[in-house]
Amino acid sequence: MLDALIMTLGFEPGPLISSVAAAAAEGLSEKARIIVLTAAFPDERAERAWLEFQKVFGMMGIAEKLGVKLERHEIPLDDMTSAILKIKRVLNELREKSAKICITGGMRALGIALFISYLLVEWRKEPSLSIYLEGRAHALSLPNIRSFLSIKLTKAQRDLLRLMESGGVYTSSDLADLTGRDRSTVYRGLQALYKKGLLEKNERGYKLSRLGELVRDGMQS
Questions:
Q1: For residues 146 and 123, is the Cβ–Cβ distance under 8 A?
Q2: Contact 76, 82 (CB under 8 A)
Q3: Gap between the terminal Cα atoms of the chain
Q4: pLDDT band at 138, cuts 50/70/90?
Q5: What is the pTM for the complete model shown?
Q6: Considering only CA atoms, which of 6, 145, 148, 127 is closest in space to residue 72?
């Protein structure tokens, strides 16, 4: 159940409507917060989009059924630091909640400010993050970027990642043969990488997760 949905408004209400509908299908808690970030400067297109979004949101009946609160926060975009700090204050209130962040508007500065703010918050419960493609009602889910930035690996763990190819499935015996290390040592390394979210496992063995692919491809040779 989601306690909060955070979105950015550009000039079209469509992505916000799609995001709210998806959140409602996923499940919203009672009195969940629907937070819309808009630019503080006046813009007729953005204001029309906000009014249209409010109208459709009212027709959804979510507010009446669950007591969901719709909030609008105007973010100053004349100074990026001020924008980030204001958004971060909003996000800090949600760091222990189940939250979803959707970059839904075409206003790039606002989306960038929200993304940076997300990185700076010390989340107790990691939110999901997605970005909507402009002109299409389709969202891309982003991997856990914060984990990517904070991951620390030993040399042995880095060696294991380098040996694993995308789509390949490996056992500890496979990698022990490739590295020349003891099987139990390799197994502990794989378990550590799995706990960091860099590997997935099934009945056949371990494979790189999407986050693991990012980390491996970003490592220096």
A1: yes
A2: yes
A3: 42
A4: confident
A5: 0.74
A6: 6
